[in-house]
Specification:
Number of strands: 13
CATH topology of the largest domain: Aspartate Aminotransferase, domain 2
Number of domains: 2
Shape: globular
Number of helices: 15
Strand content: 15-25%
Bound molecules: pyridoxal-5'-phosphate
CATH class of the largest domain: Alpha Beta
Radius of gyration: 21 Å
Structural class: alpha/beta
CATH superfamily of the largest domain: Type I PLP-dependent aspartate aminotransferase-like (Major domain)
Length: about 400
């Protein structure tokens, strides 16, 4: 691409208010963060359980550096497969109720890698219209025929599955908790449709692991379901306050991915410090159910306050609570005004969300106090009225 074209494209983004810049955080990641020398309440991290800054995770990382060094120094298939990686795979399988699991370096790579490995031109993938970008990119990488079904619309999914009977493998993939909407996929109905059509189901539990279910095991626990042959993807980087991702499934799927998933094969294994933090986080989740209770109390409090103020929070049922603002300019202004009042909540614009459905994506965590929520509700009321959103 010619440099002039890059410049023109950037200008175009600026003109349409879709230009993105990085904000620098000068503090650790907690309910409060420091930006431009100002302390703000953060309403946009995925640190749902407040573990990103937890002492036990830090201690585990430091101990792993002492025991195993800084780097895995090679990909898993060469010499980077250390005892600690296999330990994390064992505790993850236990958490997800599956035979085994396989660690990937990021959620993006897990989705892209799994779809690229499991599907090719002979196959069809059925993907919810609001699935995460990593799933969309995985679909493209696979070269499979892609059928996009309307958001959470199981009758539509069923009709597409019926139309596409001739493919070798048919894979249905859905976020369990949608990252920009905070709503939940109707998994029991999806599972029935998948069984009726002899398809394979992959569920992205990135925002459900450590959040949904009585003990935070994820979407299957939320619905009272068991393994059911579902391939469960999830991340350690959100509620678990660490980094990386997994595919939890059978030994056969694991062997297949080890042999076929390029995002697993051609990359250096995660460092021991990161793996150790993930193991420590899963241990906390297992032993301390109070943080999960706090997260849900805070979620209900903020969700109910925003709704009672008259904001459109879509069908959010989780700590991800979007506030629909509509146009790009209003959304940017809303976020700017929140910033001025002491809150950081990111404006979400196309292409992350469809045109005309810009929003302020808020997330609450177990690290937020009731007084934080009261303060935020007050600011949202002021700014919402000022900008005539409510
Ligand atoms: C639903 C969903 N899947 C996958 C990912 C990717 O995970 P990671 O950040 O570990 O790459 C994200 C967010 O980043 C997500 O929201």
């Amino acid at each position: 691409m010619r440099l002039k074209t890059l410049k023109e494209e950037l200008e175009l983004l600026k003109e349409s208010h879709l230009f993105r810049t990085l904000k620098r955080v000068d503090s650790d990641q907690s309910s409060r963060i420091t930006i431009n020398g100002r302390e703000l309440i953060s309403l946009c991290s995925n640190n749902y359980l407040g573990l990103a800054n937890h002492q036990a995770l830090k201690d585990a990382s430091i101990a792993a550096i002492r025991d195993y060094g800084n780097s895995a120094a090679a990909s898993r298939l060469i010499s980077g497969n250390m005892k600690i990686h296999e330990r994390l795979e064992d505790v993850t399988a236990e958490l997800k109720g599956t035979e085994t699991s396989l660690v990937f370096n990021t959620g993006y790579m897990a989705n892209a890698g799994a779809l690229q490995a499991l599907a090719d031109e002979q196959d069809a993938i059925f993907s919810d219209a609001l699935n995460h970008a990593s799933i969309i990119d995985g679909c493209r990488l696979s070269r499979a025929k892609v059928f996009v079904y309307h958001h959470r619309d199981v009758p539509h999914l069923r009709s597409l599955l019926s139309m596409a009977a001739g493919y070798r493998r048919r894979i249905v993939i859905t976020d369990s908790v949608f990252s920009m909407e905070g709503d939940i996929a109707p998994l029991p109905d999806i599972i029935t449709a998948v069984k009726d059509h002899d398809a394979i189901l992959i569920v992205d539990d990135a925002h459900a692991t450590g959040v949904l279910g009585k003990t935070g095991h994820g979407s299957l626990e939320h619905f009272g379901l068991t393994d059911n042959g579902i391939i469960q993807m999830g991340t350690y980087s959100k509620a678990l306050g660490s980094f990386g991702a997994y595919i939890a499934s059978t030994k056969q799927v694991k062997e297949y991915l080890i042999n076929k998933a390029r995002a697993f094969i051609y990359t250096t294994a995660l460092p021991p410090s990161v793996i150790a933090a993930s193991i420590a986080a899963i241990k906390i989740l297992k032993e301390d159910h109070e943080i999960l209770n706090i997260l849900w109390r805070t979620t209900r409090l903020f969700g109910e306050r925003l709704k009672s103020l008259g904001f459109n929070t879509l069908d959010s049922e989780t700590p991800i609570i979007p506030i629909l603002t509509g146009g790009v300019e209003d959304t940017l202004l809303f976020s700017k005004r929140l910033f001025e009042e002491g809150i950081y909540a990111a404006p979400i614009r196309p292409p992350t969300v469809p045109e005309g459905s810009c929003r302020i994506r808020t997330t609450v965590t177990a690290a937020h106090s009731e007084s934080d929520i009261e303060f935020c509700s007050g600011v949202f009321e002021t700014v919402g009225k000022e900008l005539r959103i409510i």
